[in-house]
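TICKET #2291
ISSUE: user wants both folds in one file
ATTACHMENT 1:
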Amino acid sequence: MVWRRPPAGSLFLVLALLCLCQACRAQAPEPSESRAQELFKASGRRLKDGRLILRSIGQLEEASKLTPTDPKILEALACGYVARALEIVWMTTPEGLTLARARENREIARSKKPTATFTAPLMGKAVAALEKALKLPGATSEISHTLGWVWLVDVRQGLTEKRADSMKRAGEAFQALVKAAPNNARYHQSYGDFLRSASNYGGPAAADLKLPSADEEYAAALRLDPNNEGLNFVLYTYALRESPPDLDRARDYLLAAQKADPSNGLYSYLLAGIALDQAEGDAPRRLELEQEALQRIAEGNSASVTNLVVYSASAPAYLATLLRTMVMGQPTDMELPLLNRLSAIGRKATQVAKRWETDQPPQALAAYTTLVAMGERLADAALSGFSGIMRLTQVAGALELEKTCLTPLAAWAATHGTPQQILMVRQKQQELDGLNKWLEDAILNALPEEFGLDELTGDTAK
């Protein structure tokens, strides 16, 4: 056989293919790196959903050993440790009884040791992982933000029993963030969340730090994100806390929040409250403002939804779901004032309807009927929007509001009503009695007499 030299173009093509193959092999991730990314993505999804925390921690620990220089994996691992600490706290509440019965949690749930015995080491691991991540190439300010939130969670929940130290560290972290990134709305909002938590949970140590007011940071965040519904709502609550309340500014914040979500009837109810407050100090316009308030309540009743949870903290995504669950499962500084506010609106509007009975009987009937419907809407919203004890607390408040409105309506119907109106009131009263009975049973079921070994194992006390 006679050897023939290949054409120059063919030789060039072969060499090019060889070089390409070598480049692909050089760029292809190592098996360990691919495995680490698979573990990271799967665990990250579970943490964002707030489930299978222990499994996620195990997989992230494996991933961090495979690629120890990836700061994102370390950040997720730190959030896993914090999530586990929150789970342990959750197990000590009636809402966490099911979680405490799980096989992997029984030993902790049965223990008589302080909760911090189990949560403090986890928090220490979280801080260590984030501090290591911050020293690695590719670390971003988001990791510093997450570290600030680790300390903020401790301020709120007391996971290390070193709340004063965590408060100081969280304050320093968020101050540094807003100074380094003054145009980042999330960082200002997180700083506001910290300042509000320090004010409510920090005790005397918070006063010693001479921290600024949370509303200043929320306002800074709103200037950068003016259409943020939650920020407008939280600033509405601060406007009402002023002495005297700044009703005009509170109204502006509510209108902005309503513009962001016009489907939520909550804002119509709260705007009715502003009108009722203004009517108390404006005699010439009192009737006009009272009529506006009842019209606002009617608008709220006809809205497509009534969402009572409109503020979401700017927590890291890996912690957001679990934090939201815990906040909704206990009385907090955000939800209870809202419940009180709605109850006060109902009482004031009922007083207006009572006064109208003499001068404007038809309007009085319409007002009472509208207020009863408001109580029903709020009870439904509490049932669908909350969980645990907070759910029952909100339902109880809504039913009390409905009772406040239904009692004078029943008296009015007995004196002035038609047979159909009297029947309608009796049906409403029966519905209310049924809901109150359900609430009593739900409270008894939600609060076991003894949260201990018997509850965990299902054994009956001898």
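ATTACHMENT 2:
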Amino acid sequence: HRQGRLPEAEAHYRHALRVYQEGSHLGGEGYILGKLGLLEMLSGASEAGLARVKRGETLLRDLNNLQGLAELLCSLAHAEHLAHHADAAGAALREAQQIADDLNVAPDASLARHIAEVQAILTETPS
């Protein structure tokens, strides 16, 4: 979705969600719910998208999947930003950073880059 091809990304995420659900892979399902929800928000479905991201958050918290949760919290921060919930966006990103610190994530790791990317987004004015 970062390349602006939202319909293709949505089809990919929906397929991945079906695969994870059919295989009872809750960690993958939670992660994809976060990605799909953010994509829905970027496409204008704010309430449904934010609710989907939060369902993914609940799944990953219940599984105690910290790496996945930190990634999802980045999506949640971005989604909350799009919904004009600045405090919630900041809190989600701070929690993602705290988890990354606790896991000793390397600065060049994907999660660290994702946190930095979302931090830059949060400094922008939402449209």
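RESOLUTION: both attachments delivered.
EXTRA DETAIL ON ATTACHMENT 2: The longest helix spans residues 46-63.
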